[in-house]
Amino acid sequence: MTASSKPAFSPEEIAAEGLKPEEYEEIVRRLGRHPNKAELGMFGVMWSEHCCYKNSRPLLKQFPTTGPRILVGPGENAGVVDLGDGLQLAFKIESHNHPSAVEPFQGAATGVGGILRDIFTMGARPIALLNSLRFGSLEDTKTQRLFSGVVAGISHYGNCVGVPTVGGEVYFDSAYSGNPLVNVMALGLMETPEIVKSGASGLGNPVLYVGSTTGRDGMGGASFASAELSDESLDNRPAVQVGDPFLEKSLIEACLEAFKTGAVVAAQDMGAAGITCSTSEMAAKGGVGIELDLDKIPVRESGMVPYEYLLSESQERMLFVAHKGREQELIDIFHRWGLQAVVAGEVIAEPIVRILFQGGIAAEIPAEALAENTPLYERELLTEPPEYAIKAWEWTPDSLPACTTAGIEIQGSLQSWNDILLTLLDTPTIASKRWVYRQYDHQVQNNTVILPGGADAAVVRLRPLEDGGSGGGGRGQGAGGREQGDEENSSPTSSSPSSPSETPTPQSAVAATVDCNPRYVYLDPYEGAKAVVAEAARNLSCVGAEPLAVTDNLNFGSPEKPIGYWQLAEACRGLAEGCRELATPVTGGNVSLYNETFDSEGNPQPIYPTPVVGMVGLIPDLSKICGQAWQAEGDIIYLLGLPLESKVELGASEYLATIHNTVAGHPPRVDFELERCVQKVCREGIRNGWIRSAHDCAEGGLAVALAECCIAGKLGAEINLGLASSISQRWDEVLFSEGGARIIVSVALEHQEVWESLLNEQLANYWQQLGKVSNSNTDLGVLTSDNQSLIKVRIEDMSDRYSHAIERRLKGAELKVMS
């Protein structure tokens, strides 16, 4: 291309593409000329934070990325781990935050479609979805609209495409009022002989465009996702893509069939930045160039110009590089599935992306300049924690009202511990997510092992593909910090032998969870991020799964502000340490920055820093798992982890935020040696068949965890804390503090001796017997060692608060509208 004689773009035009003045100058330097409009748009999307991670890439280098089971790490469409026995699992998490804030239904739906394409582009059949969602207060009508729309979008796309949504978490906090978070994780079982990579190769090989047609929807979505939300951008509906799950279902089958022919050299889905991203990334990764003719691209709208072709994020589209001479074989496959498929270009030797349009060159840019050699910002890190953190750390429990075994006085009224517990169970973040998961088809593919809410992690059966199974799937939903769960259907199920006369080979399963306590990370990003990794691993261990690997989704505010960058950098440091300590390498993920909105006075309001961890684990024998529900009257209840006489901080707790309207203090510090020991013992107890239920103590602490076990199993519990009523500790610290690597388990009386022998051998003083499971539909009773009653609540009352908290708020909003 000859040097352009056009003048430089105006500062407003440059800013409209998400570029800084100095970045534009760098573009001119690299090209030796001013870019044209199409090229400016290409640089805008590819140099956005969403695509090139220009603020976060230096921090991500801290993450451990290798391990004995890691087959594919960061850099490809998804990570892949070796499950043994010839099974390989692809998995990844991504965000669709800004689009969901603008148009919640389509924003969430296309988030599901995009993450599924990342999975099957590797040659894996999608077997499960999970989601991690954040919204403002559910009392707010705007939040109710966003929440309902996002859940409807996820359920619509997942249900129609035939992939079960088996787990997730939902948090509600005013920090997300203007900027909800929608993170979606997908898992897939490799179905092709070779893992499909994305690097183009083979000079003269044809480049195929396959899938749906191209329109103007989703224009500039990558740049849109890399800037703060404003009143103007919230009205920017063209930046939100529109998905077709039925077309994606056909695309899955066509792609997997195409990959099995051996005719595909490389594949890349068209997600953020559309054609621009797929062509530049495939060319750069392969060290070659790609020439693409826009006149060959199937379109759904007339009069489109190169800028629109290149920046469109129309959904359900892919780019293939095929072996020369075999392109028609692939085209026939896609046509048979009712999809578009055309040869739109070829691989060239010159390492550039050359775009043709109407007989001329519409754009010509070095591939590396778009996809590899992109801007990088290593910002100055605060030498001291910011003022808000220092002030929050000054908080101590001494500032709370005095409390006794009878309760605590709040605003002049004595609140019993029964009252406090019921209030926490009614908190939407803690309460059952039944309203959510009942909209999802969690049984499609018929491989879910535990029904919704039955356990701390989702469990998906791994059926050999040659048996006609899809490799996995799910009927369950309970996976994550606050489970989307069904306490009414909570008992684990497992496979039965195909023949009673044969001893079957143990059938394996994969477990998955998504986790993050954002309040912890806000108050101390380093310690909070470590806690995220620890809880994810604990959730997997509670179903008997060995944690294997991590995919992360970093949701933060602006890195250009000192506090925002400090939060991001410290959280990355904590995640890296946590993953190293628990031997769970990071295989990839997503970074979503600039998650903040402007208040009425024009001041930016960032979200809580929210590094969501998606973690997968392996269950070697599907018959040896358990859920969180009590199983039988008389079973003995144990607490693993830090014993109750050890002081655990109330700082950052759900109790402190909900009951005292205070977000302050230090989050619990993670003792990784204790975490490893507790989780190992828990897994061993489950695999030996001794543990009948397991549930970690997370939000709400010991009391909420005990209540959830009672609600799930419809069985009561008689608990003696082993602490005298005259202890120096506060009773709210005992009942509601969080942390300490704690897990509640129940064990049948017949296994007590062998189980306690294991505890004495491996956990020493870090366990205690709490009590026993009582009969059905009774109470949760919690006593001191001298038989003073702290809590005595009927299961029926707890279940009502817990099961209907979200529905009550949504129905209340409907009544207000009607009146």
Strand and helix map with partners:
Layout: H1 11-16, H2 21-31, H3 37-46, H4 49-52, H5 57-60, E1 70-72, E2 79-84, E3 87-95, H6 97-102, H7 104-120, E4 124-135, H8 141-161, E5 165-172, E6 181-190, E7 206-211, H9 221-224, H10 245-260, E8 264-269, H11 274-286, E9 289-293, H12 306-311, E10 317-322, H13 327-336, E11 340-348, E12 352-357, E13 360-366, H14 367-371, H15 387-393, E14 403-404, E15 407-410, E16 413-415, H16 417-425, H17 434-437, E17 458-461, E18 509-515, H18 518-523, H19 525-541, E19 546-555, H20 562-581, E20 586-592, E21 596-598, E22 604-606, E23 610-619, E24 636-640, H21 654-659, H22 672-687, E25 691-696, H23 701-713, E26 715-720, H24 731-736, E27 743-747, H25 752-762, E28 767-776, E29 779-783, E30 789-794, H26 795-818
Parallel strand pairs: 4-5, 9-12, 19-20, 26-29
Antiparallel strand pairs: 1-2, 2-3, 3-6, 4-6, 7-10, 7-11, 8-10, 9-11, 12-13, 14-15, 15-16, 17-18, 18-23, 19-23, 21-22, 24-27, 24-28, 25-27, 26-28, 29-30
Helix pairs in contact: 7-8, 8-10, 10-13, 16-26, 19-20, 19-22
Protein name: Phosphoribosylformylglycinamidine synthase subunit PurL
InterPro entries: PRibForGlyAmidine_synth_PurL (IPR010074), PurL_linker (IPR041609), PurM-like_C_dom (IPR010918), PurM-like_C_sf (IPR036676), PurM-like_N (IPR016188), PurM-like_N_sf (IPR036921)
EC number: 6.3.5.3
